[in-house]
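ingest -> validate -> predict -> emit
validate: passed (alphabet ok, no gaps, 385 aa)
predict: started
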Amino acid sequence: MSTITHEIDLSEYPHLDKGLEGIVAFSSKKSFIDGAKGELIYSGYNINDLAQKSTFEEVCFLLWHERLPSQAELNELNEVLRAERDIPKEVIDYIESAPNDAIPMAVLRTAVSMLADHDEETEDYSEEAILRKSIRMTAKIPAIIAGFSRKREGKSILSPLKKNSIAYDFLYMLNGEEPGEKTERTFDMCLILHAEHGMNASTFTCRSICATNSDIHSAVTGAIGSLKGPLHGGANTAVMNMLKALDKDTDIAAFVREKLAKKEKISGFGHRVYKTFDPRAHHLRDMAEGLAKEVDMEYLYEWSETILKVMKEEKNIDPNVDFFSATVYFSMGIEPDLYTCIFAMARISGWTAHYIEQWNNNRLVRPRQLYLGEKNLPYTSIENR
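emit:
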């Protein structure tokens, strides 16, 4: 089959911003990023303060309501989140039937979509119902992730204990033992750091689906599908796979320089928005050092520091949130292919917050395209082609 080639006069077309670079499509009160300063704000509050002083549940409330909760409000939210952690039997049956080699993000995507069939308020679009559905999904997603992880390992799926934090119950359902206070707090901080991050690809997907007046389960399912892509949510898995392929005799600096010389990508570095050190990476760096020492995997942290140093020297590029989170999760005994699912488990708070915001001030998302094809070609009958 021949390919038609032709010259296009781009002067008669609108300007093309590939990847929507620099385009402001939405207004929001959910988060603010200053890429030059390396600053991240959630609804008015600096990520550094939230990471050190807050909890994931408190951050969920902040993103949904754009203010911090009172103690009574936080207690009420925690009570509802604990009560809603069970997943429907039909979803458990699906997890049990999924192939052991299924991609965890694909299982999560399907299971979240199924939740809509078992939510009596799926087609209730009142503000109160949308918030209740947001809370329910936030509560149930950890059980889906932990359930599939155990199922593929030949272990029984555990019911939630329905006590303490989301981080606590997830780690119990994943590992079969109740986590210590330090481990719970570390994982809780990871969820805070991944909760929200502006108009990234998955959040844009969520808001675009909402803009059609589709339901929140569809919007979150679409967001999960977007996050599944390795250019968005899978970088920390790639970082860990890279580290696991090394051994203690590897010259790490030489390894990095060789990859750069071959024009190969080092995952976990660079960011579309940040032009300096990702503020979230600072906290994860500290966690990675402490956890690696605790579980006798200090070499992982040392390798990461060497990679960071070489990347700064050779490319003047800083790490992003994914680079050190790989070591943090691995040190906690979490399999690399679950990392993006954990990302989704945290980002559900941001996605649902954006859905609520879009619903309350909606306009259908309908960008134009730049058509580069031929026009008005003569139609030839099939026997003469």
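The first strand starts at residue 31 and ends at 34.
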